[in-house]
Amino acid sequence: xxxxxxxxxxxxxxxxxxxxxxxxxxxxxxxxxxxxxxxxxxxxxxxxxxxxxxxxxxxxxxxxxxxxxxxxxxxxxxxxxxxxxxxxxxxxxxxxxxxxxxxxxxxxxxxxxxxxxxxxxxxxxxxxxxxxxxxxxxxxxxxxxxxxxxxxxxxxxxxxxxxxxxxxxxxxxxxxxxxxxxxxxxxxxxxxxxxxxxxxxxxxxxxxxxxxxxxxxxxxxxxxxxxxxxxxxxxxxxxxxxxxxxxxxxxxxxxxxxxxxxxxxxxxxxxxxxxxxxxxxxxxxxxxxxxxxxxxxxxxxxxxxxxxxxxxxxxxxxxxxxxxxxxxxxxxxxxxxxxxxxxxxxxxxxxxxxxxxxxxxxxxxxxxxxxxxxxxxxxxxxxxxxxxxxxxxxxxxxxxxxxxxxxxxxxxxxxxxxxxxxxxxxxxxxxxxxxxxxxxxxxxxxxxxxxxxxxxxxxxxxxxxxxxxxxxxxxxxxxxxxxxxxxxxxxxxxxxxxxxxxxxxxxxxxxxxxxxxxxxxxxxxxxxxxxxxxxxxxxxxxxxxxxxxxxxxxxxxxxxxxxxxxxxxxxxxxxxxxxxxxxxxxxxxxxxxxxxxxxxxxxxxxxxxxxxxxxxxxxx
Length: 620
Description:
The chain is mostly helical. Among the domains are: about 30-190, no CATH class; about 325-425; about 530-620. It has 20 helices and no strands. Helix 8 (about 220-240) packs parallel to helix 10.
C-alpha cells in the first residue's frame, strides 16, 4: 500500500469541534438580507459606493437598462456586485433627470412646491428588467436548494456504505474503499444547513469506528499523522493571521474555507489532537468575535439613526400649522423644515425593516406642511389681488377729493379713507410702494392746500405737539425701578390724556408717536416682569381651607411640576439631536431654547406656590 494514499483516524473531540464551528458559519448558498435589498424599489442608494475597477459607469439610463436586459437574457444572474452598481448608476442618473426637470420648471417662473413629475417610462423598463432578474435568481436559488437535497441523499448513502464496511472484515481492500469514500465525500457539494451537524456527526462516528478497528502498521500511521499535522498547523497559522485582516467580512469568509479544509484533513496523533483543535478554535473565535462586533456596531448605529429620524418626524408633525397666519410665520417655519431636511440627509440608514417606513413618515409630514403652505399662499395671492383693487379704488376717491376747498368735510372724508386704508391687508410687493405713493400724494396735496388756507390751525397743532411732548416726559419720569399698581394707573391716565390731545403738525406726528410708543412699551415690559410676582401674591391671598384642601392643592401643583419638568427634558433631548452649525439649524435651536426658558419660569412659579402652601401648613 502506498503511504501517500493512507489516511488517519479522525481525532477524538471532533464532534465538539464540528458543533462549535458550524454554529458560527454562514449558511452556504442562502441569500443574505443584503442580497434581498438588491431587488427592492428603494431609491435611497449610496452615492459614494466603491465600484470595482472593471465596472464602467453608464452615462444614460438607457445604457443601464440595456445592460440589465442583457444580463436577464444571458441567464447568469448570480453576480450581485454588478447588479448593485447598475442600480446605483440608474438611480443616480434618475435623480439627476428629476432635479433637472424641477430646475427647468422653477426657471420657467413656477413654484417648486407645485411641481408634479411626469410618469417615467424608463423607470418602468428598469423595474421590469430587474423583476425578470429577480425571478431568475429565485429560480436559481430553488435549483441550488434541490441540489443540496440531492447532495444530502448522496452523503447518507456514503455513510451507509461506511457503516457496512466498519461492521465487516477490516483489510486493505476495506481501507482502499474507505479512501475512495473520503474522496467522494469531498467532491459532494453543499447540503441543507440544518443537516450539516447531523450528517457530519454520523460520518465522523463511523469513520472513527473504522479507523479504530483498522490495524495499520506504525510506519504508515506515523507518516499520515505527520502529514496531517503539517496541514492543520498551516491552517491554524492562517486562521491566526486573519485576526489582523482589516476587512472583517473577507476574514470571516476566508475562515469558512479554512474550516472546510480542517474538516477534510485527516487526524493527527492522539496527544496533539486536543491542543491543535483548541488552537484552531481560539483563532476562529477571535475572527467570529470581530465579525459579530462589526454587525452589532452597524445595528447600533442604525438604531441611533432611527431615533434621530423619529425625533425629526415628531418635530415636523408637531408643528401647529393652524397658528401660522402670516407670510413671515410661514417663511420661518419653512426654514425650520428645510433645516430638518438638511439634517435628515446627514443621518445614515435606519434598520432595514424601518428604513422605508420612517422615510415615508417624514415625507408625509413634509408633504402635509408644504401642501398647507401652498394652500395658504394660493389664498394669500387671491387676497392681495382683492386688496390691490380696493386700494386703487381708495386712490381714485382721494384724487377726486384733493382739489376740494370744503376743508372740514373733505378732511373728514380723507381721514375716513386713511382709516379704511389701514384696514385693508397687504398687496403684491411690486405694487405696494406705487399704490401707497399714489394715495398719500393725493392726501398730502389736499392737506397742504388746507394748511395754507388755515394757517391759524398750525398754532393749535403746535400747542398739541407741546402737550404730547410733555406727556412723554411725564411717562419717562415714571419709568423707575419700582413697579406699583399706582404707577400703572398713572400710565393709563396719561395714555387717556394723550388720546384726548388733538392733531399735531403732520410732519411731526410719526416721530412723536414713535417716542410715545417706545416709552409706553418699556413701561409695560416692566409691568409684565412683575406678573409672576403678582400671580404669586394673588395665589397666596386666595389660598384658604384646611389641611386637606392644602394637600390637594399641593398635589395638583406637584403634578403640574412634573409635567413642566418632562416638557423641558423633551425639548433638551431634541436639541441634542438638532445641534447644527448652520444658520437654519441655529434658528430652530434658538426657538426651542426660548420655549425652555418660558417653561423654566413657569416651573419656578410652581415651586414658589408649593413653598407658600408648605409655609401655611407649618403655621397651622
